[in-house]
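Entry 14. Ran structure prediction on the chain below.
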Amino acid sequence: MRSTGKLEELTALMARLRAPDGCPWDREQTLASLGPMLIEETYEVLDAVEAEDWGELRDELGDLLFQIVFYGQLAAEAGHFTVTDSIARVHDKMVRRHPHVFGEEKVESTAEVLVNWEAIKAAEREASGKKAESEAPPSLLAGVSTRLPGLLEAYQLQTKAARVGFDWPQIDDVLAKLEEEIGELRAELQRPERDQKAVDEEVGDILFVLANLARWAGTEPETGLKAANRKFRRRFAHIEKRMVETGRAWKETTLAEMDQFWNEAKAIEKGGADE
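Output, structure tokens:
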């Protein structure tokens, strides 16, 4: 399989930027230095999706693709592989992992697809000889990067575990577990001498359960939290605007007054109706 057209033009452009007489900044970059930019571009794609701004999404996907091509160029210069190699590998992998589309296998549901996916991955690892030194099979969770944001990592870990049946039977069980964890945190906070390490652990447990609750509710938690962050920014900006309009200083304003401005922001967002 070969990449053609615009992708080849983009890879050629990247090579030109990295040439001896190319751009000094591009020439200084390393695989490690590109990391923050890759993450930033990924989140900008998610922002565009959340906003349903299709022109912005088009552009952000291009920026993200450029980062991928950048990585491929650096790998090619080091003699490891080219971005075309990456494209060919993922093409072959997707064909191999979709035997119900490109082969004769039959599936009845998404759940069956995911179970088969994990089984095919395990067979691929076995065929490639990727075994731990102890000869034990690699963990199902090994494919979840520890460098992901914590909430997203929790979501991915629980998604992986659920694919092999390690999951709550129903969402009410997850809600009950959340209530249990909140009770444990409340108990720790009420101790005469607070054990901060125990408090930290209980807060972490609550966040972990919330990630699972988000999965059950069909919400990707990192995206959901980012949306909540943006909402908070908007509403707090309204508070700041009203503070300026009324000539008030923070120290002169009560929490009740700030709550009033906050509720104004909510009403504006809802077209005059309370949330």
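Residues 14 and 204 are 42 Å apart (CA to CA). Will compare against last week's run tomorrow.
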